[in-house]
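Friendly challenge for the regulars: who can give me the structure tokens for this chain first? No prize, just bragging rights.
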Amino acid sequence: MKKLFLISILIAATIVLTSFLPEEKPLFEVKKSDAISEVLKKLGDAPIQHQANLIRGASAKIGEDLALRGIAKKPKGGKTKKQSKHFVCTSCHNTVKEDPDLRVSDPQARLNYAKENGIPFLQGTSLYGIVNRTSFYNGDYDKKYGKLVEPARNNIREAIQLCAVECAQGRKLKNWEVESVLAWLWTMELKMEDLNLSEADYKTVKAAINNNGDKGAAIELIKSYYLQGSPATFITPPSDRKVGYGLKGNPENGKLIYELSCQHCHKDKRYSYFDLDDEKLTFQHLDKHIPKYTRYSIYQVARYGTPPMNGKKAYMPQYTQEKMSDQMMEDLRAYIETRSR
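First reply, four minutes later:
Bragging rights claimed.
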């Protein structure tokens, strides 16, 4: 009886003591739908210093309208002036993921991905995930824009302005408009699922967040799966345009480039005065100009772009090496030559 009494006292004491112990925190689960910035924040990473400042009624909706339509409602009523008479952001940029592997800039992989996902193949890097980057107008863009690039290299707000004025050939955005565009860009930040992490990687990140692993290593792991900036290397046309780059072209691949890239801007003169349709005469015209030094030569316009014309400020941006390889140029040539016959 005495023994039973002691056991009862021990049980009661255990219950009382347990009630005073802190509750065990539930483990944080890392989901594929989680925003990368939130996961990095939980790991203790320093936040990117370009969160949107929603001043004067700025909003992501206003930013979306400015970016996609070039015009938006003002916070206090009325409409803004059209940002550009020539381009909108989607003239040159996608707003969805466009690279199957965000660690590399592979133009052929991007073209294949564009075909599979029904998106255009463009000169500019996708705006999707741009807020997760830390540098802009990288590589050789200083050759094109000179000192204008300097303030934009590590400042997304300056990059937005440079794009608005120089790339879009439009007006400078007001501060609240910039903040609106930035707020809209934040709606397209990278998600964990975009990185193609392995299950082992997810376990590593989960363990670190729950204080059972190296948080610094987990941060580096996540960032190793996407580029912090989009590389850009300017290259020239072949020295002998009749010979080309000396590579055998694949017309089927060239067809994809023509339809997903060339016609994105030129079909029905969408962003250009020059119409590119599927008529034989059009391909014969392009074929005739391939070896020439004119604005109708695919070598000339793809590698150098075109300057604005008198009375028409719209122009054609060039394709960097990371956006169009020499092999792809020969593929496009092969398609044009095939269709011109």
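The two ends are 107 Å apart (CA to CA). The chain has a mean pLDDT of 92. Your move, everyone else.
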